[in-house]
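Progress against Task 2.4 (sequence-to-structure conversion) is shown through the following example record, which the project officer requested during the mid-term review.
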Amino acid sequence: MSEALEVKRLDEVVIRFSGDSGDGMQLAGNIFSTVSATVGNSISTFPDYPADIRAPQGSLTGVSGFQVHVGADHVYTPGDMCDVLVAMNAAALKTQYRYAKPGAAIIIDTDSFGPKDLEKAAFTTNDPLKEMNIDPDRVIACPLTSMVRECLKDTGMDVKSMGKCRNMFAVGLVCWLFDRDLNVAFNFLHEKFAKKPAIAEANIKVMQAGYDFGHNTHSSVANVYRIETTHKEPGRYMDITGNKATAYGLMAAAEKAGLKLYLGSYPITPATDVLHELSKHKSMGVITVQCEDEISGCASALGASFAGALAATSTSGPGMCLKSEAMNLAVIMELPLVVLDVQRGGPATGLPTKSEQTDLLQALVGRNGESPMPVIAAISPTDCFDAAYDASKIALEHMTPVVLMTDAYVANGSAAFRLPELDKYPAINPPYVPEELKGSWTPYMRAENGTRYWALPGREGFTHVLGGLEKDDKTGAISTDPENHDLMTRKRAAKVANIEVPDLKVIGDVDDAELLIIGFGGTYGHLRAAMEEMRKAGQKVALAHFRYINPLPKNTAEVLKKYPHQVVAEQNMGQLAGWLRMRVDNFCPEQYNEVKGQPFTVSELVAAFTKIINK
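Structure tokens generated for the chain above:
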């Protein structure tokens, strides 16, 4: 770094990488996120990509984006608008500029703004900056493609392979803008391309060239910035996505319980990465099976559960519909099972790469018969680890299927994750049938808390059969007796209702808030950020965010009725609000609902909540 160059310190910055689906924007964003997390910054990311396998090059529908919010202290969202926009082609500039702040710096590859590129992006003139009213003084324009080819001309790579390295030039330039150490990024590339060292070296060479371009030309719209870390608990950190954290949480629970982990799954966006991640860990005793369809994925997991494993199955909304019959089988057989639902936009195929919260009622009541299941919703990418652990603990200790809900925003997003110390996590103690019951035990004999005892196959004297037909409470034989069915239905419901979950916590103006904001799952960051903005403006606001939705925390009614006004904000048409109305007498909240397949915008939340207070 030149001594003459001023390095300014920032509290936070938002960067958005954008380009064609084949331009590697997700990788570029992940690398910059990893570099930032490694130096101790707080991060929140938002990958935003099309559902097309590969849209036509340069088309408006084929633009892929990755937004990362980097902060010195805690950041809760990927940011509404970006401070730096990287646009690798004309279509990216056309579609992504709306996410840029008025004074944002724009980095463009001038080689991708030719006449044909402008035509594909629906520009009507040959001056896209003027056409979009973009101040050219805010634009870092460089012939990025040409410079990459020049950088790699002696490597023997063909032109197409060279083009795949363009994203690394952009990463290098952004790393220069924000005074990042490239060695962390280099290590990332060495690990990613360990089996292709020539590819790793080419990408490293291009990244260094991007950094040098910024250094040599001082191509900064407003100098170089550094974001210092102001608050971070000591420990080892990594950049982790929600899906990977979920996989790790399941593995941690299996290790804590002393069980094998089995995942039966059928690939579906955006849950497939959990299957991919777990398949890498055979050394940890993890067994993964990619099944022929959704129901077989769930049914095979149920077989593994019967055999004594921590069993899980992963899917998204359409797949959970298909799994419902096997999920119900888990209910009536009272076997532990974790059902992961990574929610996406619907109905039907809907918006497979976008995020919503529209599966809640399906998770709660979307099955035939009275079939209650615990439902947990992870609130952030890093919380997916704890949520998966907690879901596993509840499933194993209460002999029940549990629905673990995340969404595409949480699952694909990432954050700085402090590697956990497993010895500090609570023990997991499945209710194995006591040896003293040998000879008198029947399959539906229960412990004091109403949980059915778990008899593993192979234990002498505990041979038994389970199935989908209703069983007699005392003998375990098939029963059609109406009184017995009523009894078993109530026992299954009571078992779930009596599960102990933590109290609902309120943050913000806990004692005197005029408005209580209520949400669940992955909207936590946006709702908290909106609350904080309103409090800074002098308004009295609090937030109660649900992680446990069935059973609800015991203090739910007390919390919800404490405040004069409440608003339930969710990315659906009011499913949590409806559930709370069913469970809490005389609860009539305001509602804020969006079904756009995109995260909430904090500024819009603030405006809507302020309007409610003023009204």
